[in-house]
Write a structure and sequence with these properties.
Blueprint (H helix, E strand, L loop, with lengths): L7 H29 L5 H18 L7 H28 L14 H23 L4 H7 L1 H10 L1 H16 L7 E4 L2 E8 L3 E6 L4 E5 H4 L4 E3 L7 E3 L2 E4 L5 H13 L11 E7 L4 E9 L5 H18 L21 H13 L8 H10 L1 E5 L4 E3 L7 E16 L2 E8 L4 E2 L1 H6 L6 E14 H10 L3 H21 L7 H15 L5
Antiparallel strand pairs: 1-2, 1-5, 2-3, 3-4, 6-9, 7-9, 8-9, 10-15, 11-15, 12-13, 12-14, 12-15
């Protein structure tokens, strides 16, 4: 028997209803997108098209004839495809109430995927049970072997799904947290129904099944707070007293940018190793993504600080090595000599006196961003910059102001050398910097051997003091040059313990 075909009138009815239904549903989707920020995918277009076609079949007379099987299949299709927009609406209402663009309110994918899987499965079961009259429980019971095979195949998927839901509600970590999983440091970028997606410090993405994560020991560097410790190691010679080593390493670590000042770095004696005493430097950071550069800078600053302190970092072998104080090379000596000759205070020194002074001065290396002197601290030395450049920073009203940049050939700290005054600024190395330090003990033999030297220095310092007072007040100083010179000379002689 040949199935009857629809009439032209039926075809017109079906086509008109299909187009009208499609337009109405698409308009509804457009309103939801504008007012509720709900976006539908291509499945919604299929749902709208099938819905309009279903309405057209019901309005035509062809539905009572050959269209019965078509009507049955179309109803099932509408039911299944309706699950997709329903999932979109539910996810918007349940998991993302504030809208997809709200900061910090991203949709938890593990929950949206679970919602979609459950609703789609329910739609398929309803279609089989009520449209095709398939007894689903009987189908599953009668297909025991198939059910076992499918169950075994889905065992890992279900395990990952359940683990993903557990991880979300457990809140052991969230998107954006830095974790350590089986020795790998990585940042969580997405938690899905099957895997947790992470990215390492090397910008390498890894996917870890959720069922593996719930079994692994995880370190979360964001909880209970973002501030946590990292622990670089350094080995120093056995002859160095541990208390001195800890003090130098602690100060070096505290000067590294990115290291928290509260709590302050802590240095522990970690181990008596074969060739060195191993120290563990505990520094606190807030951004675990900066772990590698911060630990590198801590090691760099500790190396420079250890060298300046005369500490030996031994090779991993048995050696006989005696540390020698560093001496200025030709370039260093030339630059330092020129700096002293051009200095308005020390230009009174002869070439021999300058050479004698530089012969006992110590050449020091500083890493970039290391403070050479700190504002307010006591000091009895001056520095000659022979390589690199430094910034002079003053702290005032809780603000740090850069007031000068000094280059090779410049000096700073001469008042602390001559009078012991506290440092009036912080001087920070910009790049690797080489300086020659001249201390009070270096200058003392020169002052004792040349009794008239302090008198010459006091006259120059007095002239500078009176000039500064006149510049600050705009009037002539009340104190004369002789009185000022006498006062300063007395301070110099007391400071260098040469009597009054």
């Amino acid at each position: 028997m040949i199935a009857s075909l629809p009439t032209l009138r039926d075809l017109g009815t079906i086509a008109g209803a299909t187009l009208a239904g499609y337009i109405v549903l698409i308009a509804l989707a457009h309103l939801l997108r504008q007012n509720r920020a709900i976006k539908f995918g291509w499945t919604y277009h299929a749902f709208a098209l099938f819905s309009g076609l279903l309405v057209g079949l019901h309005l035509s007379t062809w539905r009572d004839g050959a269209a019965v099987p078509v009507l049955q299949h179309l109803t099932a299709a509408v039911l299944v495809f309706s699950a997709f927009p329903l999932v979109t609406v539910l996810n918007r209402l349940i998991w993302n109430r504030t809208g997809p663009k709200a900061p910090g309110k991203e949709v938890p994918r593990v929950l949206t995927d679970t919602t979609g899987l459950l609703i789609l499965s329910l739609a398929v079961v309803v279609a089989l049970q009520f449209i095709y009259d398939v007894e689903v429980p009987g189908l599953l019971a009668g297909s025991g072997v198939v059910a076992i095979i499918v169950g075994l195949a889905m065992q890992d998927l279900l395990g990952n799904l359940i683990a993903g839901i557990g991880l979300h509600f457990d809140k052991s970590f969230t998107t954006g947290d830095w974790l350590q999983i089986e020795g790998t440091h990585a940042k969580v970028i997405e938690l899905s129904w099957r895997t947790t997606r992470l990215i390492t410090n090397d910008d390498v993405m890894i996917d870890v099944p959720n069922s593996n994560i719930v079994k692994a020991a995880i370190l979360n560097f964001e909880k209970p707070t973002r501030k946590h410790a990292v622990k670089p190691l350094i080995g120093l010679h056995y002859d160095i007293p541990p208390a001195q080593a800890q003090k130098v390493l602690q100060a070096a670590a505290a000067s590294v940018p990115g290291v928290c000042q509260d709590p302050v770095p802590v240095v522990y004696l970690k181990e008596f190793a074969d060739s060195a005493i191993i120290y563990e430097i505990n520094v606190w950071i807030e951004d675990h993504g900066l772990m590698d550069p911060v630990m590198s800078d801590v090691r760099v600053h500790c190396w420079y600080a250890a060298k300046r302190a005369g500490f030996d970092i031994p090779y991993p072998q048995m050696t006989l090595h005696q540390a020698q104080p560093s001496k200025p090379d030709v370039t260093v000596a030339t630059t330092a000599s020129a700096a002293l000759r051009s200095h308005p205070v020390f230009k009174v020194l002869s070439e021999t006196q300058i050479a004698d002074l530089l012969a006992v001065g110590e050449t020091l290396l500083f890493a970039s961003t290391e403070p050479i002197v700190t504002q307010g601290e006591t000091g009895a030395s001056m520095f000659l910059v022979v390589r690199g450049h430094v910034e002079v920073v003053i702290s005032r009203d809780h603000q740090r102001l850069t007031v000068a940049t000094l280059n090779a050939g410049d000096c700073f700290g001469e008042m602390s050398l001559l009078t012991g005054e506290p440092r009036n600024a912080t001087v920070v190395a910009q790049g690797e910097v080489t300086v020659v330090e001249i201390t009070k003990d270096d200058f003392l033999p020169l002052a004792r051997a040349n009794p008239d030297l302090l008198a010459k220095l006091s006259e120059i310092l007095a002239q500078r003091q009176l000039a500064n007072e006149k510049l600050a007040s705009g009037a002539a100083p009340a104190t004369g040059i002789e009185a000022a010179r006498g006062t300063i000379l007395k301070r110099l002689r007391v400071f260098f313990q040469l009597g009054t």
